[in-house]
UniProtKB/TrEMBL annotation:
Transmembrane segments: none annotated. This is RNA methyltransferase. It comes from Streptomyces axinellae. Residues 1-32 are annotated as: Disordered. It comes from the Bacteria.
């Protein structure tokens, strides 16, 4: 039950209003229910136009990137830390105990601060390609941790944009956002809905398509990118399976990261960071 002067409290409190909630079934907390149910959240969040930001830094980065806040869920010790945000945003802020937060979300909220944010419409691939010189194209990367790690490296190492095949995981899923430390807000992204024909959109924009693969026929990536001044699109495949035959055929060149000590490949997140450095240096 929420602390209020009237049982008919509006679900949209005025700006800056902090509400204490002690009922895990309070409908105003519905954005935060079942956060550990991956299948449910994967369907629900895009359909309802929301995503969850976890932790002070990530919440602030989401706001800085222009995402509108729907509400915040805070444990007591985070209220003072987030006081400036509470005072600035018109969204309701729900103060809850750690135990109640766990009952609502389904896990122990270590960082003590969650925010439900409103998604923005995704741009069209052509819009991103117009101003970009170095882009990463992901095919079937459906692990949220890998998505977050790749976005973090893309932001840190100067990639201009990310393009995703239709079956890639959601960059705004809570785990992706958390692993990226909010870098998913820093690098613009779009989906290539017609796959792999959509790769022609990239080539038509003047990009050379480089497929990252451990295949021994591939050229070492430092050699392939030495002195490169044109536009480059780096294709990355899913963990384990790598790029599909169709994506490999669509590429202009195959590139690989030279390995030592009998190691044949890297985790796609680690491989992406090495490859990004090679194509952006």
């Amino acid at each position: 039950m929420a602390t209020a002067s009237s049982p008919g409290l509006s679900p949209e409190p005025p700006a800056g209003r902090l509400l204490t909630v002690d009922d895990p079934d309070d409908p105003r907390l519905s954005d935060y229910t079942g956060l550990t149910d991956v299948e449910l959240r994967r369907k629900r969040e895009p359909a309802e136009g929301l995503f969850i930001a976890e932790g002070e830094k990530v919440i602030r980065r989401a706001r800085h990137a222009g995402y509108e806040m729907r509400s915040m869920l805070l444990s007591a010790k985070w209220i003072d830390v987030m006081r400036d945000v509470i005072d600035e945003v018109p969204a309701p802020v729900y103060a809850v105990s750690p135990e109640l937060a766990e009952r609502v979300t389904g896990y122990h909220v270590h960082r003590g601060a969650l925010a439900s944010m409103q998604r923005k419409p995704l741009p069209q691939p052509g819009e991103l390609l117009t101003a970009a010189r170095r882009v990463v194209v992901m095919e079937s990367v459906n692990d949220h941790t890998n998505i977050g790690a790749i976005f973090r490296s893309a932001a840190a190492l100067g990639m201009d944009a990310v393009l995703l095949s239709p079956d890639c995981a959601d960059p705004l899923y809570r785990r992706s956002v958390k692993v990226s430390m909010g870098a998913v807000f820093a690098v613009p992204y779009a989906r290539l809905e017609d796959w792999p024909r959509g790769l022609e959109t990239v080539r038509d924009a003047g990009f050379q398509l480089l497929a990252l693969t451990p295949d021994e026929k591939a050229v070492p990536i430092d050699a392939a990118t030495a002195g490169t001044v044109g536009r480059t699109a780096l294709l990355l495949g899913a963990e384990g399976d790598g790029l599909s035959t169709r994506a490999l055929r669509a590429a202009d060149d195959w590139v690989r990261i030279p390995m030592a000590h009998g190691v044949d490949s890297l985790n796609v997140g680690a491989a992406a960071a090495v490859a990004f450095y090679a194509v952006t240096r």
